[in-house]
Specification:
Elements lengths: L4 H9 L5 E5 L4 E4 L1 H7 L12 H6 L10 E2 L3 H21 L4 H13 L1 H8 L9 E7 L3 E12 L4 E7 L5 H12 L1 E2 L6 E2 L1
Length: 190
């Protein structure tokens, strides 16, 4: 799926904040350096696997480790429910899309939790909220997560931020300085 140059320019402008661009079905299409520094190396995940529902419900042990989202069981459950509701909405908007259908079929075959959430029938899109990201060096960072929608291509920019002067802002500054570390404790990569 194509990300417009104007959206990529926006991504570059958020140099000090982690940002990812997602498709309607949750495919991670683009990201900035801070997103990799916070979450892990998105480019190391095969494009087919680079989907937030696939990563959440059908984790592949061959994929590199990524920062987890959800410090509590309640937060993990809420983000899982939102992810499935977003996918259900995409399926309704794109009923003939073979990629959406294949993703849903894979998730239904491979994850009992996904099936339970899918059968609940909730629909919705990304919405702004607070997320806790568990970074391997900086620890748990509570961040505001805002969604900016690009309606004509049905893509979303997910932007993570923290209020100035807060512990979360200090943790993000640490992540920015560390850059993207190899998640096995090795050297810093830029």
């Amino acid at each position: 799926m194509h990300v417009r140059p104007s959206v990529l320019r926006l991504l570059d402008r958020f140099a000090d904040l982690p940002v990812v661009v997602m498709s309607a079905q949750g495919d991670v299409l683009a990201w900035n350096e801070m997103a990799c520094a916070l979450q892990g190396d998105w480019s190391a995940i095969l494009p087919h696997s680079r989907n937030i529902n696939r990563l959440r419900f059908l984790p592949d042990p061959a994929d590199p480790p990524m920062s987890g989202v959800g410090a509590t069981a309640e937060e993990f459950a809420a983000t899982a429910e939102q992810s499935v509701a977003m996918l259900r909405s995409a399926a309704a908007r794109y009923p003939d899309d073979a990629g959406v259908r294949a993703l849903i079929d894979d998730l239904r075959r491979g994850s009992e939790l996904f099936v339970d959430l899918w059968n609940a029938g909730r629909v919705g899109g990304w919405r702004s909220h607070t997320k806790t990201v568990r970074h391997p060096v900086a620890g748990a960072i509570v961040l505001d997560c805002d969604t900016l929608h690009v309606p004509d291509v049905d893509q979303s920019l997910i932007v993570y931020s923290a209020a100035p002067g807060t512990p979360a802002a200090e943790s993000l500054a640490l992540v920015r300085v560390l850059g993207m570390q190899s998640w096995d404790g090795g050297t810093v990569r830029r």
